[in-house]
Amino acid sequence: MQREVASTTDQTSRSLPFQVRGSLQAVLALRLLDPEDPEFLAKLVEKIAYAPDFYRDAPIVLDLAAVTDREPIDLLQFAEELRRHRLVPVGVQNAGAAWLAEAERAGLAVFAAGGRGDAAAGTRAVQPPRASRRPTAATVVREPVRGGQQVVAGEGDLVVLAPVGHGAEIAAAGHIHVYAPLRGRAYAGIEGDESAMIFCDQLDAELVSIAGVYVVNEEIDTALLGRRVRISCMGDRLHLAPLP
Amino acid sequence: MSKVIVVTSGKGGVGKTTSAAALATGLAQRGHRTVVIDFDVGLRNLDLIMGCERRVVFDFVNVINDGIRLHQALIKDKRVENLFILPTSQTRDKEALTREGVEKVIAELRKEFAYIICDSPAGIERGAQMALYYADEAVVVTNPEVSSVRDSDRILGILNSKSRRAEIGEEPIKQHLLLTRYDLDRVQRGDMLKLDDVLEILAIPVLGVIPNDPLVLQCSNVGMPVILEPKSKAGQAYRDAVARMLGEQVELRFTQPQKRGLVDWLLRRSA
Ligand SMILES: Nc1ncnc2c1ncn2[C@@H]1O[C@H](COP(=O)(O)OP(=O)(O)O)[C@@H](O)[C@H]1O
Ligand SMILES: [Mg+2]
Q: Would you call A5 helix, strand, or coil by DSSP?
């Protein structure tokens, strides 16, 4: 019986050269606040460099809520430039009529309105969407993360139960917990969540970063090295405090 | 006029990174603005040997792929004026370097630096070829043993065929031999090849002979290029090599057994 079902499915998929599947992955949204800022790409690129592999070739939706009343920019060219930095714009959301026409010209899909519609006036040219924290299962890693390896929790927290070696990278949208020595690099809040924190049993990280704010090993107070530490973000600085 | 110099070998573990760090430091000490680049993507350790691994934020790969500006990735040495390090990534592989990307970085560095030293990965494949492609000169690091000499021979062939200079028919890459880990006792005993044996096979001018020296390991453990250690014989030999690179005539040291005492002399005379 099982067999028969399987072969039927097989038949169908063979007669059609494709299969329509209903899944949609989470897509990053890039809210444009001042797309005409001459430094726009430079600032964006600098921002994403803190977790470059996470953003590499990532599909991106341009959120136009904050600029929809303005004259549209040349989206075709803009999309081209993003692609040159290996970001892949796939569509727009929260666009007005003029922007919709421009999006169509640029071959971008129109996504249903999402995020908070209010155009919160930010001072930064790029503000990654601050995803309101939905409870997401944490990613748990039990094996050592070796030099050269990367572990990324694109959603939620990352819990590592084994050492993170020199030259290893771990990243999470939420908090990072390392119940072992942390010797590599750790990036928490990679989608811009400044309330994310990093906890580790033995701090000797090459670099720690929260929402793009970072310190390198040399800047860490030596009294904290080798200790249990909690790292949080306060404005444009990281705060490192010993844990009991 | 800036010079791009690749430190290469074919074989791994022969002393490329040690040599790149020492030569770059020596050139900077002599007042030349110098940058040393780690091309060994995925196995970076130039920053360890240069003692700046605790300061790395961005790297060579970020500059090529992620739009990071060169100046954000360059690390200024704390001990020696005029010396900069461009570290590499440990989480990428060699595919992360593209020819166009490397070309842009080298072109930008040429505007600012007199010497651009490229620390090559081992092997003769893509990574090593990327490191040597834009070179004007090559320091071929060889150990006095047959397998190392063979690999150096192969890399010399690649320098002559797969470099930019070879491809566009410019004057070929100037080649120098740097014979490292030269252990005079073992050479005397015949366990290792003599300088002359190596020269006979490779037939390129000698930039230096670096003695085997336990201080090399001690220095790299504390992140100090060995050329900064005055007590080290290897350091002294690297200083000589730098002087030769700058066109000075310096006699080779550490290639002949030291004069033994009077007794030795008498013994030999009566033999
Ligand atoms: N002159 C020398 N004397 C003793 N040990 C050396 C010498 N040169 C290099 N070494 C040692 O050889 C090993 C490999 O050196 P390294 O520079 O990393 O080689 P490569 O970059 O070619 O792989 C290191 O442990 C280094 O300390
Ligand atoms: Mg090396």
A: helix
Q: Pick the residue from chain A with its C-alpha nearest to B45.
A: A167
What is the value of ipTM here, to two decimals? Answer: 0.74
Find which of A39, A55, A216 to mutate to test the B interface (most B CBs within 10 Å of its CB).
Answer: A216
B66 touches chain A (CB under 8 A): yes
CB crowding B138-177: b at 16 or more within 10 Å, else e: bbbbbbbbeebbebbeebbebbeeebbbeeeeeeebbbbb
Same domain, A180 and A226: yes
Q: A150 Cβ partners below 8 Å, 6+ apart?
A: A53, A168, A169, A170, A171, B91
Check which CATH number belongs to the domain holding A77 and give it.
3.30.70.260
Residues of B whose CB is below 8 A from A147: 90
* Judgement on whether residues A183 and A110 belong to the same structural domain of the protein: no
Choose the closest CB to B91 out of A45, A85, A148: A148
Which residue range is the domain that position A50 belongs to?
A: 28-118
Query: For the segment B228-268, what is each residue's pLDDT rounded down to a tens digit?
Result: 999 999 999 999 999 999 999 999 999 988 766 666 666 66
Structure tokens at B130: 């990327």
| Whether residue A179 sits in one domain with residue A109 | no
User: Is A171 within a domain?
Assistant: yes
Cross-strand pairs, A92? A62, A110
What distance, in Å, lies between the first and last C-alpha atoms of chain A? Answer: 60
d(CA A164, CA A144): 6
Question: Is A143 part of a structural domain of the chain?
Answer: yes
Say whether both A173 and A147 belong to one domain: yes
Higher pLDDT, A58 or A198: A198
Has residue A185 been placed in a domain?
A: yes
Contact B66 A207 (CB under 8 A): no
Q: What is the CATH number of the domain that holds A205?
A: 2.160.20.70
Distance CA A44, CA A162 (A): 33
A127, part of any domain: no
A57 touching chain B per CB within 8 A: no
Domain count across chain A: 2
Same domain, A153 and A188: yes
Q: What is the pTM of this model?
A: 0.74
| Whether residue A37 is found in the same domain as residue A90 | yes
Ligand 1 pocket test: which of B145, B216, B224 has the largest number of ligand atoms within 8 Å of its C-beta? B216
